């Protein structure tokens, strides 16, 4: 009786390095598309692929031909669809962020509580500013982005690049401030820019009380991986927009948890 050949189970040092590099690549791609619309696009592509296998197995020639034509431009479609993610991935490499971001990765494994404490310290000035602006019914729009895209924001914003503080945020959104009419963009633990003009959402199902500030916050969350905190000038109500969806009447406790998770 012939024995089983287990040669295929032999793993060389090169194979181990190969597996580790692929795992790291998958991890970084995941961090780029996590909590973005790209995840939904990937799911849609997966469903189309599975559907293609099914219709091909059932010998449905017409449907198979149509899907094959669609998939024949797959590489070009991927580049167009995932252009923002590819851009961020290249920026990540160019800034040598693989090494820098690993600090957060190691912290996740060995110091999660310390990271959460540091995050809450960074978030506190934002929460305090929101409390003050809610009380005075000062309209505000704060956008939080993981990667600050200078090309996207530079053309319509005033560069600030300052440390986050309660007084600075309140000053920017004061009605008499020349920078109050627009959004503040926060990234890398800094107020990067102010008075930003953002794309408005095309969603026509939003409540009628939503003005330009809410529509801009929802719009930027649809087209980028940003989240937006909106304070209504009429009611002082705080809203939180992410991936084109908006959560209304957010409490300060909820806002702290959301920012701690997404910021």
UniProtKB/TrEMBL annotation:
It comes from Pedobacter vanadiisoli. This is Diadenylate cyclase. Residues 83-252 form the DAC domain. Probably a homodimer. Keywords: ATP-binding, Cell membrane, Membrane, Nucleotide-binding, Nucleotidyltransferase, Transferase, Transmembrane, Transmembrane helix. Catalyzes the condensation of 2 ATP molecules into cyclic di-AMP (c-di-AMP), a second messenger used to regulate differing processes in different bacteria. SUPFAM superfamilies: YojJ-like (SSF143597). The chain crosses the membrane at residues 12-30, 37-55, 61-82.
């Amino acid at each position: 009786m012939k024995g089983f050949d287990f040669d295929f189970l032999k793993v060389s040092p090169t194979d181990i390095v190969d597996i580790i590099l692929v795992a790291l690549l998958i991890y970084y791609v995941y961090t780029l598309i996590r909590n973005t619309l790209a995840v939904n696009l990937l799911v849609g592509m997966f469903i189309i692929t599975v559907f293609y296998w099914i219709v091909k197995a059932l010998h449905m020639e017409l449907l198979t031909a149509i899907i094959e034509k669609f998939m024949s431009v797959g590489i070009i479609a991927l580049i167009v669809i995932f252009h923002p993610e590819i851009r961020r991935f290249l920026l990540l490499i160019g800034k040598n962020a693989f090494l820098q971001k690993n600090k957060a990765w190691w912290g996740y494994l060995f110091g999660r509580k310390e990271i959460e404490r540091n995050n809450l310290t960074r978030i506190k000035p934002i929460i305090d500013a929101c409390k003050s602006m809610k009380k005075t019914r000062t309209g505000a729009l704060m956008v939080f982005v993981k990667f600050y895209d200078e090309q996207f924001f530079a053309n319509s914003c005033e560069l600030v690049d300052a440390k986050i503080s309660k007084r600075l945020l309140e000053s920017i959104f004061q009605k008499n401030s020349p920078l109050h009419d627009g959004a503040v963009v926060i990234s890398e633990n800094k107020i990067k820019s102010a008075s930003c003009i953002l794309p408005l959402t095309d969603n026509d199902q939003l409540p009628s009380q939503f003005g330009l500030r809410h529509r801009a916050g929802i719009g930027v969350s649809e087209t980028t991986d940003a989240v937006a905190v909106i304070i209504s000038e009429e009611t002082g109500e705080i809203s939180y927009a992410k991936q084109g969806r908006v959560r209304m009447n957010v409490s300060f406790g909820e806002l702290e948890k959301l920012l701690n998770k997404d910021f």
